[in-house]
Amino acid sequence: MSGPSDLVRIYGRAFAAACWLLVFGWFTLLVLVPQVTMVDQSLWRMEQPKDAAQLTLDIDRLYNDLSVMKLDRADAPADKQAALDARIAETQAAIREMETRETQPRKVYGPENYTRMSGLHAEIFLRTLAFAALTTLIALVVCYPIACAAAFAGKATTTAVILTALTIPYAINELLRTYAFLMVLDYRGVINTALSWIGIIDLDRDQAIPFLESQAAVFAGLVYAYVLFMVFPIYNALESLDKSQIEAARDLGASSLRTHWRVIIPHAKPGLAVGSIMVFMLSAGSYAVPRILSRGLGGDWFTQLIYRQFFDAHNWNIGSAYSVALLIACLVFVALVMKITRVGLKDMVR
Amino acid sequence: MSDRLSPAADLILKVYLALFFVYMFLPLIVMVIAAFNAFQYPALSPWKGFTLEWFPRLVEDERLMGGLATSILLGICVTAASVPLGLAGALIVARGTRRTSGLFYAMLVSPILMPGVVLGISTLVFWREVGISGGLFTAGAAQTSFIASYCMLMILARLARQDPVLEEAALDLGASPWFVFRRVTLPFLAPALGSAAVIAFLQSFENYNTTVFAIGSGYTLVTEIGARLRFGLTPAINALGVIFLLVTAVAAIGFAIANRRKPAA
Questions:
Q1: From CA B93, how far away is CA B185, in angstroms rounded?
Q2: Which fold, B61-233?
Q3: I need a labelling partner for A224 at 20 to 30 A (CA). Which of A167, A278, A328, B23 fits?
Q4: Domain coordinates of chain B in residue numbers?
């Protein structure tokens, strides 16, 4: 297909040009150039010059010369003073030039921001990805039956009630949802309170179980905070499934398991793909959940490391490198899911 | 539940569904109850008696109220930017040639496929190079980058259902292109533009991950809540949670009722 697009033909050149301009501005200024700048920032660092130690020695030597010259000048006869003054000025200029070279770091490109990631940081990176993948897997297993229950409820009212009820915990702010989960795990949370009622622990004697100090708390919080992002995409995909297909499979003697495997799951694939991508990205990129649910000892989440590089260590180069690493991990996950489920970008967001 | 399941399987599914609802709602219910406990730490026990004192604390809190005003302002600006961008993107994708359409679609949904923190960081890094440090502007730019994508998707979904004959007919009858847009396309898209605007505002208002990185020393209501959720917890946060929960529930139920009245389109 060539020739003018429908956009130009229907709405005219001026309108089409306005649309192009808006979209161009959006994509370049808000997406592309910032990403490129971030990648660029991740590839350089400011480095002290390699000969800094030698320079320091040279500068010290010049300072010695300078003091000798100043002594000489004090004793020198008047006719030689002018020559000595010139030499002193010359030396001082040389010192100034060398000092700026000594203290001024240079911009050096290289992969060091990535490769110098410490063992601890690399471990946190991998742990973050592993936990996010596990969260996604749990969400898949937990939510598939829920989505089926909603989609095949039989009565439209039942479906509407289930979905509306689930919308409430889904739509409430992420921070407050996580905070609600904190109410369960906190030192004076639901579990500890229940244990103290039974008499296993005594809260007033500081015997609370410190759930928040283990990494499992962050993990449990991620599952709680993002599990519903799996339900709605699967439900949306199942909604369009012709129920008579299920009847047909059953009438032809397929077992319930086989019906799911051969009829329902293939139809739900776009939903499974979208849900997996959402849950993985929200978990791996979550800053809210680890911030609220970890109390120091549990170790960091990768997003917290990034935050500290930017706002505590003020090392934006390493911060950018970590951020690019997270971005690449997520894009790889998206590509993997699309390849495994054979779902294209256009099928995903219908 | 379902007539296709055996009674036993049906029972198991019902129990499972019930457990899932308990799992989702129990923490929220605890958060609500703790908002009315007179104890100064958010908890159910010890129960020091019913109180409403935590709610007025919110209104007296200048930073929370300031954050609320900032959030509303930011939400309005982001909505005003995102809806036109989404509309332009949707028209280019829906009315472009086959080749440009696929390419632009991929480009313009890409921000949705990136982690929110990365969008915030890249915006912060880029605008600093230009000489604009983190603040409301960068927060708005970072939010718009992906909220416009959501707007585009909503408008695209509506455009896909449009009968192309309508615009052609208007053109054949001698309408000017601008007239076609204003009197044929725009009225058809109005419901989608309306819901895109609502969603854009809510997304902006609720956003934490992107905003906390992009906003620098500024703050919105949500980033201010985030700042307080780690140390020095007070039941005032629970009171705020009750308000958010009420608004969310009313919106969800209202949306469901409105959807049922509307004939299936």
A1: 15
A2: MetI-like fold (1.10.3720)
A3: A328
A4: 61-233
